[in-house]
Design brief:
The protein is of the alpha+beta class. About 35% of the residues lie in helices and about 30% in strands.
Length: about 120
């Protein structure tokens, strides 16, 4: 079994806690660290956010997510959403040049893996 590492503090955590705000359907997640201190069991909670950020998403143009789940998958989902947004835009020459540079960096990153 792999160790569960908190994305907020980088320390191992014991379990994930779900909390629902009264009168709301929004669920918030916390990484719970259980540890012994001075002969007593203690808990420390690190806020991981909601599964989805619904209020800021319309402002950003793509779906933002909380820290729950694998960061690699979350970042790739962000990248896919950002590309979709950029495809709908009329980009000027500077933006296209920057996008080309970023694309080259992504292509190099994709070639680094040896698991094909």
């Amino acid at each position: 079994m792999s160790e569960k590492v908190c994305p907020r503090c980088g320390q191992p955590y014991s379990y994930i806690e779900r909390r629902t705000v009264k009168g709301s359907k929004q669920v918030y997640f916390y990484a719970v660290h259980v540890y012994k201190e001075g002969g007593r069991w203690r808990k420390k909670r690190c806020y991981l956010g909601p599964k989805l950020y619904s209020r800021v998403t319309p402002l950003q143009g793509f779906q933002l997510r909380g820290l729950i789940g694998e960061s690699r998958q979350r970042l790739l989902d962000y990248l896919e959403s950002i590309i979709s947004e950029l495809e709908r835009m009329d980009l000027d020459a500077d933006s296209r040049r920057r996008l080309k540079d970023l694309s080259a960096r992504l292509a190099r990153l994709a070639e680094l893996g040896t698991d094909d």
